[in-house]
Automatic annotation (TrEMBL):
PANTHER family: AMINOGLYCOSIDE PHOSPHOTRANSFERASE DOMAIN-CONTAINING PROTEIN, AMINOGLYCOSIDE PHOSPHOTRANSFERASE-RELATED-RELATED. This is Aminoglycoside phosphotransferase family protein. InterPro entries: AGP_Transferase, Aminoglycoside_PTrfase, Kinase-like_dom_sf. Pfam families: APH. It comes from Devosia sediminis. Residues 33-243 form the Aminoglycoside phosphotransferase domain.
Amino acid sequence: MSGPKSTATPAIPTEATVLAIVRERFGWNTAEARRFTTGMAFYVYDVLHGPDNVVVRIGLPNQAGSMAEGLALWRRLTPLGVPLPAILADGTDADLPYVIMTRLEGTDLGHVMMSLTAPQRTAIAQSVADAQLATARLGPGQTFGFAARPEAAPHRTWGDVIAAGIDRSTRRIAANGLFPPSIAAPVIARFEHHRPALDAIAATPFLHDTTTKNVIVADTGRFSGIVDVDDLCFGDPRYAAALTRAALLAFGGPADYIEPWLARMHLPQDGVFSFYVAEFLLNFMSEHGMVFNGNSAPSDPATRNRLAALLTRVLDAAP
């Protein structure tokens, strides 16, 4: 049971919503809730009640299906050895669908990356790679792209997935007006060059957002696990490592983190990998001026100039 249904139109989730949920589920009358600021799909809250600590993820009514599919995916991934939080309560049939899960010890990798030693970073990168290898044991799909189930992946080829991402970025850039639309031209040209290789890639399932966020690291520098897995991507597993490389370039971080990840998975850093990094930098540019689920992407001229220079540098250095 997830609680009685209401005939009123559900509101946007708030701290009061979360406190009502944990009061009903656990009898916690004196809990404290704080929203995480990084959520782009769901409303995610850190909840404390004395020594107890849980995470509550809440969606809007039209997200109930995707939240339930995400839970079903977690239940397929966990037996394979993917280190995800344990599910404590399934409220996906509530007016505002929710899930309560254990709070992994620690914080996002990005918050502690600069304080870690090189051996600690290597161990974390290898743990992420192991999670990717475990995810691949689900088996390949027949179609490509982002989905909780292989049969729901929407694209015919991996190249079609990349083309859709570039198209989304170029449309956002044109709409936001903070970068010249022509900045996408060299990325598009590089895409056309690599298109035959992209279309030949198999639909391997991988965790697409194990970047400097969603990878949780304890105070000791130990890898704790992975959070916010709502779906997978079917295609080239290097895509997640390239996203992480782009994030480290754009937002700061050590350059030695990606190599042990790719080495553990026996994956190359070639021209296609460099192209992925450039495509993600273009995507970061496209997010400037946008608001996601109440969390806005900061933008200022210095940051925009730095991203544009990084894009040029990555493209110029690509093999």
